[in-house]
# Entry
Amino acid sequence: MIYSALTLNIQNAQLWDEENPEACDICIQDTIAFLLAQDADVIFLQEVECGHDGGLQVEPPPHFTELRRRLNGYDGIFAYPPQNELEIPFGLGLAIFSKTKLRDRSEVILPASQITFEYGGLSRRPSERLLLTASTVWEGVRVNLANTHLQAYFVLGTTSDVHRDQRNLVEAEMKKLHGPSILAGDFNAPGEGLVEQFHTAGFQSAQIEETTWRREPFVLDHIFYNQALILHSHVVIPTTSDHHAVRAEFVFSGLAKK
# Structure
């Protein structure tokens, strides 16, 4: 049997406007319509909610609440990262949706680097990030699912090759898992060593060549999988977000039940 996974940074449900990318309308219904059309078995979403100056995190999270209401037949989990009083007003928060029941939810905090940057007339520091994990069952086999959104160091004039803590911790957590495992998200590491690092750790990316970000010709978004899964197909799909979606289909390898 073939199983499908889709990852998408929805950028707080903002509709991409090439002429005015910093002042886009927000429409979660367009995001929902896209996800329903994809009909993926598991969905990984990043930047689900809007960040606010001062670190406000709205509860209950409005976009996740609407996603969970409209994605009939899906189980869903969500997590905000730790609050940051110097948060920038961009998207934040991770969600996983699955047609099969999600189990064993866990959150791992990914540390923020001790660097500063200017935004909105303030000196700010990066926020801590999260690795959101769960498991589900396909054909009686436990499948590990992990979602993350790493710091975009390239925007701050440096790289994750210099500031490796977040990706090293993600690698360490994934290496603890047994059985079929999928790691998806926005890794924000264009032209950096992250893909090679995860490959050495036993996780391949479904695709590394086609651009997934509209603002620059970068591959930021990945679906990584381990040797208990075989990649059947993959595609990068244009969306209304500033990111494109990555969709991958898998079958179990002979290692899946070992």
Remarks:
- The chain has a mean pLDDT of 94.
- The chain has four helices and 16 strands.
- Residues 91 and 228 are 33 Å apart (CA to CA).
- The longest helix spans residues 28-38.
